[in-house]
Write a structure and sequence with these properties.
The complex is a heterodimer of chains A (about 325) and B (about 50). With about 325 residues, chain A is mainly α. Chain A has helices at about 1-25, 30-35, 40-55, 65-85, 90-95, 110-130, 135-155, 160-170, 175-180, 185-210, 210-220, 225, 230-245, 250, 260-280, 285-315, 320-324. The termini of chain A are far apart. Chain B has about 50 residues and is mostly helical. Helices cover about 80% and strands about 0% of the residues of chain B. Chain B has one helix at about 10-45. The chains are: A mainly alpha (about 325), B mainly alpha (about 50).
Amino acid sequence: MARILTWLEKMTISSNQNMNETTDVLYGPSVADFWQLLKPRVMSLVIFTGFVGMFLAPGQMHPLLFAISIFAIAAGAGASGAINQWYDRDIDAVMKRTSGRPIPSGAVVPAEALSFGLVVSALSVLLLGLAANWLAAGLLAFTIFFYGVVYTIWLKRSTPQNIVIGGAAGALPPVIGWAAVTGGLSIEPLILFAIIFMWTPPHFWALALFRNEDYIAADVPMMPVVCGEAETRRQIVIYALILAPLAVVPALIGMTSLAYAVLSTALGVNFVRLSVSLLRRPSDDIAKRLFAFSILYLFLIFLGLIIDRFLVEMGMLSGLVAVL
Amino acid sequence: MTERRDPKTADEMVKMRRGRNFAIVGLIAGLAVLFFVLTIVRMGAATS
């Protein structure tokens, strides 16, 4: 009798669970859930860096085509975010930071997220190809593939260098923007690519240092999980030491004026100072400060590039360009 | 992160569905307009 009661109890729980799943499907996801699938915060960074690439590129583009191109780059980035959330749904459910995302929270069915990601990917590449050119569209398609497949499916779960190599996807938007305006590539967008590429590891490792338990729980081989926190802090310093002078290079090749050189040097010195401070006095507090500063750093570096170009074109910094 | 806003009543569910349907219509119409404008601008650039 007791066994029958236990069986009945289990059946009732299982039936309730099924009912919840069925009703979830009946209700369906809201527009806001699909918006969250696009990772709007990441998208805003992509819009910004893509815009900088387009703004700095020599050449003219119809304002409307310019806007559509930015929209397409943002949509492509968002689509790769949806594909990433589809594949990482098991990890996301375990990690505190991501457990509220649309798939682990049950708002969106995985297949819906994947279809959404694939359709938006195709539309964004098509739109960029028609609005700008097929080189830019090809680069966008490569970026989506690199983030959705190479980073998410392959690297993320297999190597502590996941962020280092995968960072290439996040570094490509200014290159796509440049290609959209010029129809080609040159050294300038590659420098912008290199800056974001070298910025990504210290940025994410600072986050991983104070979110280490999350990555351990999800069994993601982030640098602090595999190589330890001390080694991660050492690597952060190495990357900061490469990043700081690299960010000054635009001024050295005549892309910007001396004003940008001063700004990027000051920001770079502070980045290195914070990284060294984290190495000497390990604490979550300093890791959080470094993480927050790294966001501000990239924002100010790219904002500096835009303002500098604007002022040079207005003739306000022409003397400073001649100095270099 | 997003809070789940499960509808509590049938009316709420219908409202939610209607909102989603309007969003899809808006999206499709927006895309149609976007491609139309894109074509016009590109044609203008080609003829000027």
